[in-house]
Amino acid sequence: MSGAGSPAGGATPAALLDARARVVHDLGARHLDAAVHVDVVDAAVRERRWWLEAWPEGAAHVAGQVAQDVQEALLDDHGVRWPLCALDHPDDDEPEPHVLHVLPDLGPDPHWVCEESGTAAAPLGGLPAVTG
Q: Fewer Cβ close by (within 10 Å): the C or N end of the chain?
């Protein structure tokens, strides 16, 4: 996806560009910002365009939807579980790798939440980088 245009033509709404930037940031925070994974983001943004055109009031909700779409596509098409949780789990000596989920499922201000503890990890677009 290039600039404000899209492969099909027309302007990309600001909400979709914001969603793309936030998801790409979080991919990078987990070292998954290779072109093949960014292509998944671009496909999700293209697919969500119709949704936003049909429901312009959904602009505040589209970032979380794009993140969920990318999470599903990475798992289904690439076998990649993303984003893996990097929170401390003091009650678990060796926690099993598990993912964060976007909450709310449909709502403004999406954030990543640990599926194990229910703890908020970061706002969408704000995952801290992990080392390694």
A: C
**23, 29 contact by CB (below 8 A):** no
CB 104 within 8 A of CB 120: no
Residue spans of the domains in the chain: they are 14-123
DSSP secondary structure of 105-129: SSSSS-EEEETTT--EEEETT-PPP
Per-residue pLDDT reduced to its tens digit, 44-102: 999 999 999 999 999 999 999 999 999 999 999 999 999 999 988 777 666 688 999 99
β partners of residue 122: 112
Q: What share of the chain is helix, strand, coil (3-state, %, to 5)?
A: 45, 10, 45
